[in-house]
Amino acid sequence: MKLAVYRDDDGGYFQNNNQSVPTDPATATFPAPHPLQPFYIQPAARQQVGEMETTSIRPTFVFRPSDDLEVTLIYENGSTEGDGAVWTNVTFQRLGLQADFSTTADEIGFTDIESDQTTLEINLDEVWGGTLTSITGFREVEANSAADIDGTFLPIFSAPGFTTQDQFSTELRRSGQISDTWSSTAGLYYFEQDINYREARYIWLPPPLGPAPLGYEPSGREFDQLR
Fold first, then answer.
1. What range defines the domain where residue 180 resides?
2. Mean pLDDT score of the chain, rounded to an integer?
């Protein structure tokens, strides 16, 4: 048995220079630091943004009941939580008005990703003079996020997105020598996945068209894939 554990705790290295961000986050008024925006997913109430925590655990089990048979089982669980993607105004940066690794975003957003996957591999030697291999895998992912797309202190454009995905695949192949000078590999492969993707766009519109909730434009897609 083997066990692999990965952990990363990134405190964020982007500086938020939004003038609406209070010096003391505890004094922040919610739901929004900007008077034109009545709704925020996670308002910018701190200077350091881009925080992210990632954890991955992967145990591996190998079983050899005989010299000709080997069974390997791998499981992996991963999670990522933190701020949304940090966007900035590239035009301001090119003009020298904004430093690298900085933003004036009024929306921090969020990232929340969970995944599980399992792989089973079986190898059987001395099958028609070669090795018979079976590999079966299953994976499931749920990813939710939101980000300030315009990257400015104005509530112009922010977008949340939600994705769920699961997949199944299996492969059966035989490989080995067929003569002193030739070897061959032949098999079958099957893959299937389901994806459900949905996003929304919060766009600020000037009165009387806005503000933001009236600029809400949902869209989504769902499809199956077989291979």
1. 2-226
2. 83
